Amino acid sequence: GVHFVSLVLVIVYLGGMLVMFVYSVSLAADPYPKAWRSWGVVGYGLGIGLVMMVGLVLGGVLGLLADEGTVNSGGLLLVRSDFSGVA
Q: Per the UniProt record, which residue ranges are transmembrane (predicted)?
């Protein structure tokens, strides 16, 4: 019991630290980082914004995001409103 759980928690902690170490090393080793004003970053930002706007417009037009006025879930909303506080 207790020894196994503590060993698993230590392994999970070390795995998380390894991921953070690899991420920080990869960021520090990038010889040509992209700046906020470069065309690649601006293009990605505009593309993501366009995808989000299309999703919101289609969700609002088709009524997929939420069924207003009811308690039951509807569309893309999978959680009932009255159960949202239950752990």
A: 6-29, 41-66
Question: Could you list the pLDDT tens digit for every one of the 87 residues in the chain?
Answer: 788 899 999 999 999 999 999 998 888 877 777 777 788 888 899 999 999 888 777 766 555 555 555 555 555 555 555 555 555
Separation between Cα atoms, residue 52 and residue 66, nearest integer Å: 17
Domain boundaries, the chain: 1-31, 36-69
Q: What is the dihedral of CA 56, 59, 60, 64, to 10 degrees?
A: -150
What is the signed CA dihedral for 66, 50, 37, 30, rounded to 10 degrees?
80
